[in-house]
Design goal:
- The chain folds into two domains: about 1-65 and about 80-180, no CATH class; about 290-435, Heat Shock Protein 90 (2-Layer Sandwich).
- Helices cover about 50% and strands about 20% of the residues.
- It contains eleven helices and 14 strands.
- A hairpin with a 5-residue loop joins β3 and β4.
- α6 packs parallel to α8.
- The two termini are about 20 Å apart.
């Protein structure tokens, strides 16, 4: 139980870390991509407002149409101190109007413009870097842009926009490959950082959870040891009490006080035996044998002796157990499991009720069901009935003999066989325990 609790806590923490890091990576890259799209849109707006050309100031031309500054010898345009700014002949630097980042982005972007006729055919195209494109590439890009049916969008690394002009339309496309590559680099970097962070935090979380659970685990181990020791210690005085009660009965004859003593001794002895069984299973002292056996016959050997007692109590049993169903496991444990389930069904079935036992083979799985009519188990109690000593708090249950260990032992037997046990209960339909082996 403690191991399952630890695993659930680790899984919960790891899931939380994964979701948090994934959300952070998504938020960073989504905002980065939105900024890239927004900037590309602003560059396209600027170019569209200037008829598909860079603004004069971005070509190094002032408002008086002065010629652009000449770069020093050995430097190409767009490099050295002239990159990203305008200067007059006197060396005076002019400030860009608007966002410097936007101006720089527009100044550094490769773009081309295409004039289209009314029918969508290309009349001419131009680019400051015409060497980067061919007529076929331009025609293919135009065709893809037209087929998108959008006035603006993105094709691979190019953002495009259509604008109206005389005798047709103008297509403006801006290459943002550098920005997209940067965005992808940010994505890879943030994802890598998130993975490393999750790994480190996961190791720390597992270590911390184990330290937190350790005192609980130690307390549970001490409790199990106490139950084991106490059960062994109680066996001897119970045997002495029972022997003396029998001796008194032989000497003085039958009497109610002696009957009560014997009855309580037997009840306490059953409780101790159940506690010892649970303790052995929890300590791993009991290992299930994995031997092929006839499961159908084993179940019938347990179920048939129940019929006379049920008949005397005014109850009925129906069995649907096909012959020859084999299973590999511990036959004695499976028999004990069925004894517990049938005893439970007998106790909680209503007067004149029905107990139905069925077995089914589905491939490698064996499905055992024990159903009884009677009062339903509430949903909140269904989650707890497999706990040790748990019994639903009702007057009906207090009248029924038992110590609340039977179903806990049944669950342990099923767990040893790597199976699963569940319960379904509804008012008017009764209760069904399903064991999948």
């Amino acid at each position: 139980m403690i191991k399952r609790l630890e695993q659930r806590m680790v899984l919960l923490v790891l899931s939380g870390l994964l979701l948090a890091s994934a959300g952070l990576v998504f938020a960073i890259n989504w905002s980065n991509w939105q900024a890239l799209n927004r900037q590309a849109g602003q560059v396209l707006d600027m170019l569209a407002e200037n008829g598909g050309s860079r603004p004069a100031m971005m070509r190094g031309v002032n408002s008086l149409e002065s010629p652009p500054p000449t770069p020093p010898e050995g430097e190409r345009e767009g490099q050295g101190p002239f990159a990203g700014r305008d200067q007059g002949k006197d060396g005076r630097e002019w400030r860009f109007r608007g966002s410097n980042a936007l101006m720089n982005a527009a100044n550094l972007s490769n773009f081309f413009t295409v004039s289209l006729a009314d029918d969508g055919s290309v009349t001419q195209w131009s680019s400051e870097r015409a060497d980067l494109y061919t007529d076929e590439e331009i025609a293919s890009f135009v065709q893809s842009a037209l087929e998108s049916g959008k006035d603006s969008g993105r094709l691979n690394t190019h953002f495009f926009r259509f604008s109206a002009q005389e005798n047709g339309r103008l297509l403006i496309a801006v290459d943002r490959s550098m920005e997209i590559e940067n965005a992808q680099s940010v994505l890879r970097l943030t994802a890598l950082v998130a993975v490393i962070e999750d790994a480190l935090l996961s190791v720390g979380a597992v270590w911390l959870i184990r330290r937190m659970v350790r005192p609980v685990n130690e307390a549970m181990e001490k409790q199990k040891q106490f139950v084991w020791d106490a059960s062994h210690e109680l066996k001897t005085p119970l045997a002495v009490i029972s022997a003396n009660a029998e001796a008194l009965t032989a000497e003085a004859g039958e009497s109610k006080p002696l009957e009560y003593i014997q009855s309580e001794v037997q009840r306490t002895d059953r409780l101790i035996q159940n506690l010892l069984t649970l303790a052995r299973m929890e300590k791993g002292a009991v290992q299930a044998a994995h031997v092929p056996f006839d499961l159908s016959r084993a179940l019938l050997e347990v179920a048939l002796p129940f019929e006379p007692a049920l008949f005397e109590a005014g109850k009925r049993m129906e069995m649907d157990i096909p012959d020859g169903i084999e299973y590999t496991g511990d036959a004695e444990m499976i028999k004990q499991l069925l004894v517990i389930l049938l005893s439970n069904a007998e106790k909680y079935s209503d007067d004149g009720g029905l107990i139905r036992l069925s077995l089914e083979a589905k491939g490698e799985k064996r499905i055992l069901k024990v159903h009884n009519t009677g009062p339903a188990i509430s949903p909140e109690n269904q989650e707890k009935i497999f706990d040790r000593f748990y019994r639903a708090d009702s007057s009906h249950n207090r009248e029924i003999e038992g110590n609340g260990l039977g179903l806990a032992i049944a669950q342990s037997i099923v767990s040893v066989h790597k199976g699963k046990i569940t319960v379904q209960s509804a008012e008017g339909e009764g209760t069904t325990f399903t064991v999948t082996l």
